[in-house]
């Protein structure tokens, strides 16, 4: 921009020549310059005003469009913005193998207070204490009238309690939406499900997290928004309910301290029922014990966490390995002269069975001496390898958070005397779940089974072979003979062929070492129908006593076996197993086989 001089020399000289005032020229140039500047400023101001008007118009237009959009949407609960990761409140449900609900969510509310907003802190404290007797009125008054800006009062309240608090009418009492975990079947399958509690919490949402059982084992999957549908377990709710009912009745009649049962499909390893007594209601999960034995707590899962010496149920594994190695056949005679001496140790039988028994009768009569002699022929290294192939030397892989901690107990040095005692179930401690896996693997044709609590919708590949089909068939026949003419005669169920083995082990003392003289762990492991088995059932009772006779009886044949038989009688029809029938000479009369 070229600026005009205020006092141009030529015009000044000319003005002086003609007698004009040169200062007038300067003032005129100043006026013109100011006029130009004023025009420029006016133009800039007009442009700015136009731009501000356009921006104001656009802002009001956007606000109007947003207000129209919000007004046209259906009503919804506003979501408060918060820093950090969003709390996901939706947790997938859990069902049994037939789609029946085992765990689901129920919408409820939490109660909190904002003391600065309260109109009557003292009166509200008194009324809150009346609605919730577990809250102390004086404590509430102190908190409501103190410096706190926010405090939780109840994590979950019922609709009736919510209405009662609402009727107080104090704006400082607020409600936050919550999803609580609901177990509609109460105590049924409580040790499988475990339970939940609140993890991260906010005013408008709270995260449910598993604390035990499958709820904790599958916590990430159940809380994953991308997971499709519910978690389908292998459990059968009806069968589980029946087993718990019978087991509870048997435990009470036999004055047992506790009980456990595992029902497993022999080919897939699916667990149709897993029970442990005493149990609990996961809707109001009790607190863990802080003193005493772990097994005293109803939270203790005896079927998985209970690591016991399970006694003579192990004898069938010893006989099966001897058959598999070709050391004996079912009719081979074994020396059963009792007691058997081995250094300073003595091995005795429950009764005197004579100088010798066949391998089959060693199992039928449950001879410790005959089984120990079979174990010596097998040898410690081969015995240990065989038991390892059946899963007895490691925790089970069942999908429960408690399973990895239930490691079997066995000698660090596998000596000859250990080989003998382990052959009949002493000197090695395992869980009922281990025993169920071992029996299923031995009797299903001889392939290793992997236990699972997840429903298998398709065929399950066969596991590694542990024994031949011939050995498996021989083991099934031996177990059938145990029921027909041996220590488990009370296991007979009309219409169903049962095979199984009893096990009675003295209970070790918790302090000082040694064993109790009058406390046992009684176990019966069975399979049915034994000619072509589909299911394995293991029943264990802790310190049972059958007292109907003149003397108390504690052996499994008098305790665990009758309970197992009643379970089988009641669940076999539920499992779709038809009783087999044989014809007598009279064509109009039929007799259910035993």
Keywords:
alpha+beta, Penicillin-binding protein 2a (Domain 2), Beta-lactamase, 2 domains, elongated
Low-pLDDT stretches are 76-85
End-to-end span in angstroms? 120 Å
CATH architecture of the largest domain: 3-Layer(aba) Sandwich
Q: Which radius of gyration do the C-alpha atoms yield?
A: 41 Å
Average pLDDT over all residues = 87
Name the CATH superfamily classification of the largest domain: DD-peptidase/beta-lactamase superfamily
- What global shape is seen? elongated
Counting helices, strands and paired strands, the structural category is alpha+beta
Number of strands: 18
Provide a count of the helices.
Answer: 17
Name the beta content range. Answer: 15-25%
Instruction: Classify the helix fraction into a percent range.
Output: 25-40%
**Number of domains as seen in the coordinates:** 2
CATH class of the largest domain: Alpha Beta
Biggest sheet, open or closed, and with what strands and sense? 5 strands, mixed
At CATH level 3, the topology of the largest domain is: Beta-lactamase
